[in-house]
Amino acid sequence: MDIKIRPETPADYFEVEAITRETFWQFWEDDRTICDEHLLVHKLRDSDAFVPELDYVAELDGKIVGHIIYTKSWIEADDGKKYDTLTFGPLTVLPEYQGKGIGRALMQHSFAKAKELGYRAVIIYGIPDYYPRVGFKRAAELGLTLVDGSTFDAFLAYPLYEGALDGIRGKHDFDPVYMQLTQEETLEFDKRFPPKKPHIQIPIDVLLERLEPSAAKALQEKGFKTVDVLKSQSEREISSLPGMDAKGVETIRAVMKEYNYPWGEK
C-alpha cells in the first residue's frame, strides 16, 4: 500500500473537515450531542498556536484518507522555566482505512519534521492503550500533570529525542481553542456538510447487565453513562477499580469489540 504524505493546502480544507467529521462521528463524551472535531480543525488553522509546517494529509490513490494537525503547547516547569512542546489532534483516519498504518505514517513523518524544527516533545490527550504502542509514555511517568495538578492515562507524551524531557517536571498547557467549542456553534457549523444520522451512544446498562455485581458497581460508582466513554479509559485504570476483576475486564473487552470499539492492551 503506497501511502503518500504531503502538506495540507487550502484546497484540501473542506475535504479534510469532512473526513474528520466522518472519523469522529462516533464521539464518546457524555455531554455532547454531535462531534466537534471538524469544527476544531477549522478553528485550529486560524489559531496563533497553529504550526503550518506540521499540517499533513495522507493520500491513497489520490484520495485524502487521513490528516494530522499540530499546535504549540508548553510545560510550565516546577523550576519556573517554560519549555515549548507540541500537541497534535485531531489525528484523522477514515474508519474504512483504519488499521492499515496510516495514522502511524502520519505520526512518524510529522515527528521527524518536528524534531528538525527543534521541538522536544509531543504531548496529547488520546486513546490510552493505543498510543503507547507507537512510543508514547504516560505523562505522569515523566513528571507531568495537567494545569490543575491532576493526571490520567489518556494524557500522553512522546519525547522527540533521547533525554528530551529528562529533569523537566511541571504542568502542561495548550491553546484555549481546544476548550472553547460549544455544541451550539458545532451544530451551526455542521450545516455546511451533508445531513448525517446522529450517533446514538450505547447506554452503560448494556454492559452492566453482563458484569458480575461487584464489577458493575465499580463502573456505576465512576458515573459512566455510556459504553462509548470507556474508549477514554485505559485497561489499567479500569482494572484498578475496587470490585473489578480479570473476568470483568474480559467482559468489557468483548462488549467493546461487539460495538467495534477497540479497547484495552490486547
Structure description:
Strands 1, 2, 3, 4, 7 and 9 form a six-stranded mixed sheet that branches. Strands 5-8-6 form a three-stranded antiparallel sheet, with no helix packed on it. The radius of gyration is 19 Å and the shape is globular. 33% of the residues are buried. The protein contains eight helices and nine strands. It has 266 residues and is α+β, with helices and mostly antiparallel strands. It folds into two domains: 4-179, Gcn5-related N-acetyltransferase (GNAT) (Aminopeptidase); 205-258.
Structural class: alpha+beta
Average of the residue pLDDT scores: 95
Instruction: State the helix count.
Output: 8
Largest sheet: 6 strands, mixed
What is the strand content?
Answer: 15-25%
Shape: globular
**How many separate structural domains?**
2
- Return the CATH architecture of the largest domain: 3-Layer(aba) Sandwich
CATH homologous superfamily annotation of the largest domain: Gcn5-related N-acetyltransferase (GNAT)
Roughly how many Å apart are the termini? 25 Å
Predict the CATH topology of the largest domain. Answer: Aminopeptidase
DSSP strand count: 9
Q: List segments where confidence is low: pLDDT < 50 over at least 5 consecutive residues.
A: none
Radius of gyration in whole Å, from Cα? 19 Å
Q: Percent range for helical residues?
A: 25-40%
Element order: H for helix, E for strand: EHHEEEHEEEEEHHHHH
**CATH uppermost class of the largest domain:** Alpha Beta
Key terms for this structure?
single chain, 266 residues, alpha+beta, Aminopeptidase, six-stranded mixed beta sheet, three-stranded antiparallel beta sheet, 9 strands, 21% strand
